[in-house]
From TrEMBL:
CDD domains: class_II_PDE_MBL-fold. The lineage of its organism: Bacteria, Pseudomonadati, Pseudomonadota, Betaproteobacteria, Burkholderiales. Residues 16-233 form the Metallo-beta-lactamase domain. InterPro entries: Metallo-B-lactamas (IPR001279), Pdiesterase2 (IPR000396), RibonucZ/Hydroxyglut_hydro (IPR036866). One of its GO terms (biological process) is cAMP catabolic process. This is Ribonuclease BN (tRNA processing enzyme). One of its GO terms (molecular function) is 3',5'-cyclic-GMP phosphodiesterase activity.
Amino acid sequence: MIRVLGCYGSIAARCHTTSFLLDDDILIDAGSGVGELRLDELARIDHVLVTHSHLDHVLSIPLLADTVIKLRMGAGGPAQLKPIHVHALPETLEALRQHIFNGVIWPDFTRLPSAAHPVLVFHEVQVGQTLRFAARGGQTDRLVHVLPAAHTVPAVGFGVDTPQGWWVFTGDTGPNPALWQALNGLRIAQLVIETAFGNEEAHLANISGHLSPETLAQELAQLDGEVSVYITHPKPGEVPAVLSQVRALDSRHRIEPLREGQRFHVPADQPPTSL
């Protein structure tokens, strides 16, 4: 199951930035939506998959590390600490090291409580790589494919393989021909794609590496077959206007707004539910 913790481009009451929870142990991005999890849920997170280094997608990583460090220790103390594994592009990991875990903005939890037993362990990924995560509760292993993205900093998207098709999250991206080349020929169950600005702010979308409804429609025209499409990353309060513009330009796909609290069932043979 994939649970939507946050799906906005900025914050307001009951509006959080991007984060998804795959089953109960894998975060896909770590925006402010992570704060919706209970303490016991936070302590179960073993992996964080990061699309890129921008603050709205990574801000909960340092707070998560600080919150769960004691909870993830065994009776033997730091030597039995179960680390959280952070998976991202090399450039993203370097940005986290230099600009967050630098001892100025936040302590370096890749060396705490000790260099030998840190609470955070970084792992480099590359576009085209498939990550395999051990099965949970009798399931088969989870496969997550690293997809190309086109943003202002090095970035990726992620695709989760399910028996019913791929659940695809584009991450932050502008027009991205490489993504459609990677997806065409695959069976897409659900596509979560960003649309950060309305058409009236298309110039901002272009210079900031995001999509507007007009460029989204051009992107979706490159996707084979009919796919359920969920829009993410608008600003709070702008969802109705952005969705209306998107639907006016694309009648081929079923297009819905992503909502916090939605749960996408994996396998995706059921519609999403809400809390």
